[in-house]
Amino acid sequence: MEPSVNQYVPSDYLPIIIQFAAALGFVIFALVLTHLLGPKRTSEVKGKAWESGIESVGDARTPISYKYFMTAILFVLFDVEVIFMYPWAVNFKAFGFIGFLQMLTFITLLMAGFFYVIKKGILDWK
């Protein structure tokens, strides 16, 4: 039985697999080669922690307000959600009215989460 015109066969993916294997092989080769050929000098100064060229002062275990972390996590969460809107906008006409209703549902749920975050006061800085 011959495959139809729109049906993919496993051999269609062979070039992708070869390219992936070549890229992975190059990365492994480069890491091993630099490990073997690179200098292996250690010193007290080299082992010290530096941040942007400024010498560290104090303890790294200083407590930090969770508000910083919550803001960062929420930014990533809502940023990733907005990324889903771009492909939808590009194919807006192809999705038709059903696609519009699905995106309306998506935005409604996104806004519900956003208003929940505001109601809980996570973004309030005091």
Automatic annotation (TrEMBL):
List the GO molecular function terms: NADH dehydrogenase (quinone) (non-electrogenic) activity; NADH dehydrogenase (ubiquinone) activity; quinone binding
> Which cellular compartments is it found in?
Cell membrane; Membrane
Question: Where are its TM segments located?
Answer: 16-38, 68-88, 94-118
Gene3D superfamilies named among the record's database cross-references: NADH:ubiquinone/plastoquinone oxidoreductase, chain 3
- What does the record note on quaternary structure? NDH-1 is composed of 14 different subunits. Subunits NuoA, H, J, K, L, M, N constitute the membrane sector of the complex.
Q: Report the function annotation for this chain.
A: NDH-1 shuttles electrons from NADH, via FMN and iron-sulfur (Fe-S) centers, to quinones in the respiratory chain. The immediate electron acceptor for the enzyme in this species is believed to be a menaquinone. Couples the redox reaction to proton translocation (for every two electrons transferred, four hydrogen ions are translocated across the cytoplasmic membrane), and thus conserves the redox energy in a proton gradient.
Write down what this protein is called. NADH-quinone oxidoreductase subunit A
Q: Which organism is it from?
A: Pontibacter korlensis
